[in-house]
Design brief:
Blueprint (H helix, E strand, L loop, with lengths): L7 H12 L9 H23 L3 H5 L6 E2 L4 E5 L5 E5 L2 H18 L11 E4 L2 E4 L2 H15 L11
Helix pairs in contact: 1-2, 2-4
Length: about 160
Amino acid sequence: MISFHNDEDARFLEFVNHNYENKLSDRSRKLIYYKRDKERDFAILSLFLGSGIRVNELSNLRLRDLDFEEKQIHVLRKGGKKDVVAVSPPSMQDIKDYLAVRTERIGAQMTIPAYVFLTRVNDGATPLSNRAIEALVKKYSKAFKSNKSMSPHKL
């Protein structure tokens, strides 16, 4: 596995936000999904880099766990221990940006769970699974690092 050095994390986020879609063919299904999920995916990647939390902690994050005032999140650690994790201000802003479009992207008429990171499924929304989050990280890191993917743990 690879990891980021120096300012590569900032370049990675810049790539996902502005250049990833250029690698996709016009009208492809991947481009449609990227445009639909861009803010969510970006917030996930930013949160990993801006907090150091684990995949399971991210997938279980609920709206009530976000503290924008103090720029921190409440997580459930291994062994069921509750903890407070500081998050970089830009990462908290990225979560806010995602939440601003979340209901619209998922579907305003649908019942939306209290989890932060969701995916659209049939007539509703469901929390992203650990496996889906891992696949998302690998997809973007592989595109950024020329076919060398990263795990969320490396982020």
